[in-house]
Amino acid sequence: MAIAAAAEQKVDATPMEGFDNEQLDKLLGLDKLGLKSVTLLALGYRDEANDWNVKLKKVRFSKEDFVIHLN
Ligand SMILES: Cc1cc2nc3c(=O)[nH]c(=O)nc-3n(C[C@H](O)[C@H](O)[C@H](O)COP(=O)(O)O)c2cc1C
Question: Whose CA is nearest to atom 7 of ligand 1?
């Protein structure tokens, strides 16, 4: 939902799950609040002027390789 909402506002989003949850919880004091991190979502704007990556074509699976239709 957050990714879709960001995209609608033309804000770039990078979700991440590959991080040390326990360390982050300690760093942000989430453990003391009885909370646990599950995912991160970096939000921002692409650097059109300086990021050579920005104009590259997205690498994505085709719909045929990604979606299974169950009838
Ligand atoms: C739920 C979710 C978790 C993700 N976790 C990671 C991650 O831990 N590390 C990572 O390098 N990319 C992760 N990604 C992929 C990045 O968010 C991002 O899609 C990727 O860097 C490619 O960039 P692009 O989507 O602009 O092509 C994750 C994506 C999703 C949807």
Answer: 16
Residue 71 within any structural domain of the chain: no
pTM here is 0.77
**Closest Cα to residue 25, out of 39, 34, 36?**
36
Q: What range does the domain containing 58 cover?
A: 2-66
* 71 CA distance to ligand 1 middle (Å): 31
pLDDT digit string, tens, across residues 11-24: 999 999 999 999 99
| Residue 29 falls inside a structural domain | yes
**Ligand 1 site residues, Cβ closer than 6 angstroms:** 14-18, 58
Could you give the CA distance from residue 67 to residue 9 in angstroms, rounded to a whole number?
27
